[in-house]
Amino acid sequence: MNMYDIIIIGAGISGLSLSHYCTKEGLKTLVIEKSNRVGGTFHSHRFEGEAPDFWIEAGAHTCYNSYRNLIGIIEDCRIRDRMIPMEKVPFRMLVDNQIKSIPSQINFMELLYSAPGIFTLKKQGESVESYYSRIVGKHNFERVFSHIFNAVASQRTNDFPADILFKKRIRRKDILKKYTFRDGLQTITDSIASQQGIEVQTGKEVKSIQSIDNQYEIETGDGSRYLSSSLALANPVSVAAELLQSPFPDISQQLSRIKMAKVESVGVAVKKEMVSLEPFAGIIPLKDSFFSIVSRDTVIDEHYRGFTFHFRPDIMDMELKLKRIGEVLGVQRDQLNHVIAKENSVPSPKIGHGRLINTLDSLIADKSILLTGNYFSGVSIEDCVSRSLSEFNRLKKLLSNR
Ligand SMILES: Cc1cc2nc3c(=O)[nH]c(=O)nc-3n(C[C@H](O)[C@H](O)[C@H](O)COP(=O)(O)OP(=O)(O)OC[C@H]3O[C@@H](n4cnc5c(N)ncnc54)[C@H](O)[C@@H]3O)c2cc1C
């Protein structure tokens, strides 16, 4: 059996960014991924057949110049020259089946009256609802802003801790404020995975973990076994909880307190002339079967337009989803012939999440078991990379003390 310095379970941005840091440090690193592709939520789907050069984002879609750790990796991978700006097209709202501007839905008197709260109110200990209702006004929050927050996290976010969604970060002024890549964001995860020194095995689902004499033995669905002296879980928190149940019940118990939400994403590519809607970056409905539509209008294509609808889970089958997509886009069902469906998942943190994470961190503090993912200080891409970096730094300290 091959022995690795570290095995990382999950090849999303959390696992791959960690693998990048470990390989750079000279650690013998193996990433094991359940799916046949790397990237997880980074999924720039390319349509075959008629639209072979057209891609849409089935998951993550936008990066910012405040994502400093991510940018560091992009630079290490030498793909900065493939970054492209995103077109300045607006976000809209869908109100009673009509496309409206966001400002047209806001009560500005209420906003002006409430906004000064931003200088005095603290986010700590507050929920998204309690904090932002006081910043934008209760009516504005219920009517407009709650839907925007729900669209960001693809679930109802009223009970999220207020400090988890948006963070102030220092910007890199030499980098585009908002960017993607010529071939979509998956360029980042593909490039990390193809770096020299990183071994990635796809199509292998980790089924069990055993901890024996300071080593970890991992078994995958096909019966393969792997040994390592350190182990990182970079998969959704519910899977991490399950895998750690037998070797580390105390860690597993804490992890299982963090709930997950499912998002049923459906992307379509449509010939340009079929869609009469003005170009837009995204649409947020006031009330509908989906949380948001993310458009490819941010990267113009000569022939196609693309739209990904992030549906609420378990309420519609595929035919109903396509019917709704057709209605919103004003396109016949049979014109929706380039379709991709993907299930994404996101954590649902609640008030007290920070304490739970502190407990988790103290449980793993002296162990060569690393936890990374989007369920720590936030769900954004940079939150994932930052967590991977801090876990890598902890591992380095552990190794130097041995
Ligand atoms: C629809 C959507 C849009 C988003 N858009 C943005 C955005 O534009 N900008 C932004 O900053 N953030 C965005 N986010 C948030 C961010 O993209 C995600 O939080 C982040 O990509 C999650 O990465 P991850 O590696 O932690 O998890 P994942 O991407 O979920 O990766 C986990 C990986 O683990 C694998 N896995 C699971 N179980 C096993 C197992 N047993 N064995 C082996 N492998 C396993 C999975 O197959 C998967 O590849 C978005 C999130 C969603 C859901």
Question: What is this structure, in a nutshell?
Answer:
The chain is 30% helix and 26% strand. It has 402 residues and is an alpha/beta fold. The chain folds into two domains: 3-41 and 182-258 and 350-401, FAD/NAD(P)-binding domain (3-Layer(bba) Sandwich), CATH 3.50.50.60; 44-67 and 83-88 and 260-347, 2-Layer Sandwich (D-Amino Acid Oxidase, Chain A, domain 2).
The SSE string, one letter per element, is EHEEEEHEEEHHHEHEEEEHHEEEEHEHEH
The profile of the biggest β sheet is: 7 strands, mixed
**Separate helix tally:** 11
Q: What structural class do the secondary elements suggest?
A: alpha/beta
Could you estimate the helical fraction of the residues in percent?
25-40%
Keywords, please?
seven-stranded mixed β-sheet; FAD/NAD(P)-binding domain; 11 helices; 402 residues; D-Amino Acid Oxidase, Chain A, domain 2; binds flavin-adenine dinucleotide; 26% strand; alpha/beta
